[in-house]
């Protein structure tokens, strides 16, 4: 390669000098210079690196150097072509000293990728063009500040590459695992990766909203601008006491007071806790307050009398479901004769998550005859629950402890079923009872000093809500 560069260098210098000879009508030297220049360029560009070609280029370079020296010096020893040497150095410095082949600075390229179902960070990096070694080192460095295995579906990650020709080299990564955290990965001069976490403080603001139900609670919430996530949490809270299929009617109303977290620019970036929620159903009002007892590590929800709203079991362990078949004797849709229906059926789309109705121990998880994929949970000596016809069972083991609200499976139509639904049973002393009418044991009741402390907290919250007028339409959700 150096030989080629030297040949082009000499050719340029000789070309400049032979142009002067043409102007001076020194035809023979000019023609000699032209022939040498043409031959040099041809050999520099198209010849191979064989031993014979290298020898020819070496002889041609020597001939050009001698010719250039002969043309450049007159009888006094003065060179009339010294300006040509300087002109080539100034006008084309990259050609004479190997600069024409000097690699260009690498381009910096950024791309965004989104986490899909089943994706891992390693998979995303490899798919974007990072090599396996860089990807592995990047994932290892990130573990210092974030768990690469716990990425949210749809989360965006910005990758930065250094690109030269077709070679891509990972040099940086940026992601925001949550609204208050961002993570940056950078490559140092030594080639190693380092990860840095930045915490962005969020400030709470408070939203007071409500509305009247015309067709459905969710539609009323949407009309009022209440975020869907907030309304889903509110439905979960009231599902201990309210049958949303039968008890919610047009003309009923709801009210909710919740936190909204703002970033440094005053923009809402996520919703916080529900501090107060109320529903008025057929003239009867249920009010729930968020409160943390002094002797408990976590807050819970209590009614105005200081009674925990938490029950031993959820009445509806699947969100957004429609009651399709009740408890009791019925004409079986497949068998064609009247038989006892030992539970209730909730119709829902395939794959809808099914939650454990309460804390307990898994007694069975697997296929169970006409029930299809089936789970049975023992909650205590008195209560147990059954979930059937699931499309899939979560990763459960017999004897494993589950928590109320934990996903244990997904709606399906396995076993003897006409369509996707959850068959749900509640057993009291191993006897099936109607899940929608059974009286369920409640949680803790506050008393004494703790009850007085709760009432003071309720008074403060009520004053806070009074200062924030009820809005029937929120903006910027």
Short descriptors:
477 residues, single chain, 10 helices, 28% helix, 22 strands, globular, ten-stranded antiparallel β-sheet, five-stranded antiparallel β-sheet, alpha+beta
Structural write-up:
The chain is α+β, with helices and mostly antiparallel strands and 477 residues long. The chain has 10 helices and 22 strands. The strands form 4 sheets. Strands 11, 14, 15, 16, 17, 18, 19, 20, 21 and 22 form a 10-stranded antiparallel β-sheet that branches. A 5-stranded antiparallel β-sheet has the order 1-2-3-4-5. It has a 5-stranded antiparallel β-sheet with strand order 6-7-8-9-10, with helices on both faces. Strand 12 and strand 13 form a beta hairpin. Mean pLDDT is 78; it is low at 20-25 and 72-100.
Task: Give the termini separation.
Answer: 64 Å
> Any idea what the radius of gyration is?
40 Å
Query: Rough shape?
Result: globular
Task: Classify the secondary structure makeup into a structural class.
Answer: alpha+beta
Overall number of strands: 22
In terms of DSSP E residues, the strand content is 25-35%
Total of DSSP H or I helical runs spanning 4+ residues: 10
Helical coverage, percent range: 25-40%
Show unreliable segments: 20-25, 72-100
Mean pLDDT: 78
Largest sheet: 10 strands, antiparallel
